Amino acid sequence: LWEVQDSGVTKVCENGVVGFEGPFGSYGCDLNAKLMQSALSAAKQQAAAVSTVPPSFVVASGDFAMHKSPSHNETVKHVRAMFEEVAGAFPNMLVIPTIGNNDVYPDNMAPLPEEILNTTGTNMYRDLFDIWEDHILCKPCGSVSNPIDHSANKGTFLRGGYFVLKPRDGLRIVSLNSLVFTHKYWEDWKKINATYLPVADPNGQLNWFRAQLDAAKNAGDAVLVITHVPVGYELVYMATFTGVSDYYEDAYLETFLHTLTDYTDLLAGLLFGHTHFDDFRVLFANQSASAATSPLVPVEQTPIAAGLIAPSISPIFVNNPGFRITYMANRGNGMHISDYDQYYTDLLSTNIADSATWTREYRFSEEYSQYGVHSTFPEDLQRLANAMKTDGTAFSRYSSHRILQYSPYRYKLNCMLLHSGPAAFNACVTDAPVGA
After folding, report:
1. Separation between Cα atoms, residue 79 and residue 4, nearest integer Å
2. Residue 175, SS3?
C-alpha cells in the first residue's frame, strides 16, 4: 500500500513566516502544486519499481486541505482538488481517506456530535462524503468472499465521519474520525459555548468500532485501523523544542486502548498521520489515562499493538517531504503490516537544482536489523524503542529519519565555512532559505 499524509497545497506558513519560495516551496510552509505533483509521480514510479504487483490500495491519512483555511468553501475546494490529484495518479485504485484536522472548518473543529446537536449529517460530513463517495463505498474494490455491506458506510460517515471497508479477502480497514477524541476539538468548541462538554461516545463511534472488530473476528478477518491523530504524546518542535502535547481526552483514550486489547489478535496494524514526522507508537494494555494508576511499562511486557506515523509531503513543520510504500505479510491469524520503504526529497537541494530527486531513505527491516529488529511488528518496534534508550547510534538514526534527513541551518553553516568577513557572512545568512 502507498501512504501519504498532509498534502494541502497553499502558501500558508507556520507562525506567519513567509520566506524563500523556491520552485518546490519552502521549509515552514505548506507544499505547492509542483511539489505535490512531483511526489505523486515519484510514488507511481517507485511502486512500479519495487513490485510487478501494483499497490493494493492507497492510504491518505488526512489533511488534504491547507492549514488555516479562510472558509468552509475553501476547505472543501482544497480537499476536492487534492483528493482528485491522488486518485488521478492511481486510477481505478482504492484511495482510503481519513479526516484530518485541516479537512474541516475551522481547523480542528469537526461538527459537534449528535449527542449535543440532536441531529446528524452536517454540511461538513456531507461535503466530504460527496468528494470521497466512490471510495467510501468501495466502488474500486474487486469481488471478495464474505463481502460486507459497503452501502452502510454512507450512514456512518454522515453521522460521524467513520466507515469500514473490505477491499480484499481476509482484511477489513476501519477509518476512524479521531478529531472528536482530542483535547483540541473540545477546547475549541468550549470557546464557542461553555456547555459543549465531552460526551461518552461521540456519534456512537467507539461502540461501532468495537462492533466492527467483533464482526471481523467472527468472519476470520484481520483489521487495519487508520485515523489521523495518533494516540499518546508528541514532542512539539519546529527547529527547536517547544513543548509536549497529548492528544486524546482521557476517557476516550482508555476506551480505545481497552478495545484494542480485547481484539489484539485481529489487528493488522494502525496507521496515523497528523504529526508530519516519521514516527511510531507502541501500545500496551495497562496504559490507562490516569497517571496515578499507570506504571512504567517494563521492557518485557508484550505490546497489544503498534501504530506507524507517516511523514508529510508538506514541509510546513520544517521537515523534508516524504511518502512511503508499506508492506503486509501473513502472520499468525491473518495479515499484518510487516515493513515499509520510506522515500523523501531534500527540499533545499531540490530548489537549488529546480529538480526533485526522490530517494529511498531506508527500508525499516534493514535499517535497524543490528538491534534484532526485522519488521514493524509491535514487539520489534518495542525492541527498537528500548534499544534507543541506551544506544546513541540507534537514536541518531531514528532522530534523523524522523524529519527525513532535514539538517537545521545547513545553508547558514555553509556561510560560516566560506565567509569570514562580516559583510559577506551577513549577506549570505540574509539570503538563506527559511529553515536552512
Report:
1. 14
2. strand
Three cell numbers at 153?
458506510
Task: Evaluate whether 97 touches 175 at the Cβ level (below 8 Å).
Answer: yes
Helical (H) or strand (E) element with 393: helix 392-402
- List the one residue out of 397, 404, 396 whose CA is nearest residue 347: 404
Measured distance CA(319)–CA(33) in Å, rounded = 17
User: Are 203 and 151 contacting, i.e. CB atoms less than 8 angstroms apart?
Assistant: no
Strands of 264-304 (E only): list them. 267-272, 279-283
Query: Across-strand partners of 64?
Result: none
Biggest alpha carbon–alpha carbon distance for the chain:
74
DSSP state of 169: T
Name residues whose C-beta falls within 8 Å of residue 341's C-beta, 6 or more positions apart in sequence.
46, 50, 324, 325, 360, 362, 363, 364
Q: What CA–CA distances, in Å, run from 217 to 209, 223, 263, 266?
A: 12, 9, 8, 7
Task: Tell me how many helices (H) and strands (E) the chain has.
Answer: 14, 14
Q: Please tell me the distance from the alpha carbon of residue 93 to that of residue 52, in angstroms, as a whole number.
A: 15
Tens-digit pLDDT profile for residues 357-404: 999 999 999 999 999 999 999 999 999 998 988 888 998 899 889 887
Q: Which of 238, 103, 96, 228 is nearest to 164 (CA)?
A: 96
Q: What is the C-alpha to C-alpha distance for residues 289 and 189, in angstroms, rounded to an integer?
A: 22
> Given the DSSP bridges, would you call strands 334-344 and 322-331 parallel, antiparallel or unpaired?
antiparallel
Give me 255's grid cell: 476506551
- pLDDT per position as a tens digit, 180-218: 999 999 999 999 999 999 999 999 999 999 999 999 999
Cell of 239: 527547529
- Cβ contact 153:137 at 8 Å: yes
* Interacting residues of 375 by C-beta distance below 8 A, sequence separation 6+: 329, 338, 339, 364, 365
**Cβ neighbour number for residue 83 with a 10 Å cutoff:** 21
